[in-house]
Predict the 3D structure of the following.
Amino acid sequence: MERLSFAIDAARKKEYDLVVCGGGIAGCAAALEGARLGLKTLLVEKTCLLGGLATIGLVNYFVPMDNRRGRQICRGMAEEFLRLSIRYGYDTLPEVWREGEPEKPTSVPYHTGYDPNLFAMLLCSLLDEAGVDILFDVTAAHPVMDGGRITGIVTDSAEGFSFYPARQVIDATGDASVAAKAGMPTADGKNYFSYFPREITLDSCRDAVSSGRIDRAIRTVSGGSANLYGGGHPEDVPFFFGAGDGTRSDYFVRNQKIVSERFASGGDRFSRMLVMAPMTAQFRTIRRMEGDTVLHEEDAYRHFPDALCTVNDFDHADFLYEVPRSAMTRRGFDNLTVCGRAVSADGFAWDIVRVIPPAILTGQSAAVCAAQAIAEDVPVAEADIKKIQSKLESEDVMVSFDDSLVPESWDPAVRRHVDKR
Ligand SMILES: Cc1cc2nc3c(=O)[nH]c(=O)nc-3n(C[C@H](O)[C@H](O)[C@H](O)COP(=O)(O)OP(=O)(O)OC[C@H]3O[C@@H](n4cnc5c(N)ncnc54)[C@H](O)[C@@H]3O)c2cc1C
């Protein structure tokens, strides 16, 4: 590869304790937590709405946050954000969970749909009121390194390049782009042909009116309709690997042609309208960091001494996973923590930690780790884990699962989830 070397004339801006790169759901959690902990916090988001895939990506569904036996696993800020997402808009919350954890065991999942644009705007108000400085339409272009430390982030916008000095940095870009540019080892993900814009039709409007449910006015249009496990991926379409520019562009061109051809191929043009298109690639796993620990699917019901949060497998009851700090940090990178869907987990474990509730929890946890590292003036991987865990517990995060939650028939030697991909 040709290496170009040039000096960037970047205007030096205000110094922050914490710079969070990426305002997806994980970055929102990290920035909010940072501000609540009293850190001067900057959130840099390259688009113009917060929430990432969970809003502009049109993924408007909190996967189940329970163990399918009536116990809520994803708590803390995952609970706060779920409730915020449905505060003023529609929901699909099961009644049994409406007032919180049910008194009796239930197999009804704790999940909900929500209005993505409204949620994005509520997140913006929440963060702004908490004191987060938000930069919209600005890209976190590059970390500036001094050995194993990031001294700050160079941003790129219409104004030009700017340099924001930072004591701690959180990579919440969803594709580990800050970590990769800092020199941290990363791994690429494989993606199927999934693209789901939304339409309204006269029929869907009638359905909405007759049911009194506005969410029924909007329906999914299937572009590439591959599912989580790759079912429906067309034989003649390549898989989409990694973060290369061409990968996403090829995906968008192919999918958008399918959708426009579908509309061009017939139907009364006064009866339907394409109202929302994903403003980010609907790729599940683009690229992730290689942390000091890589979480595996076989780590279900395993305790980690440096656990930060416990999450549940949304697709299979009843598997719980502790996410250790060492899956979000790497020694040699003193002030960088990765959260959200780019944390260090492989195979189906990557799927388990990347969805909305775990992404929120790793974001919240990342900021607590950053604050403790600042307080002790030590690398983030070495900050006092007990203090971090007790802070997270005080915020109602399930740091470690209680052994009473392990199903009676659980046999760690038996891998019960069959990978269907
Ligand atoms: C097809 C599909 C279906 C899914 N279905 C569900 C579901 O039903 N329920 C569920 O819970 N989860 C689902 N998920 C997963 C879930 O939506 C995401 O994994 C989760 O929202 C990821 O959040 P994140 O904050 O880690 O990353 P992202 O949402 O990717 O957020 C990253 C943010 O960083 C910004 N950014 C990136 N680079 C930069 C930069 N250099 N500078 C500034 N900003 C930057 C982006 O604009 C974005 O806002 C689905 C995912 C896909 C693809």
About this structure: The two ends are 33 Å apart (CA to CA). The domain at 10-188+285-400 is CATH 3.50.50.60 (FAD/NAD(P)-binding domain). The chain has two domains: 10-188+285-400, 191-276.
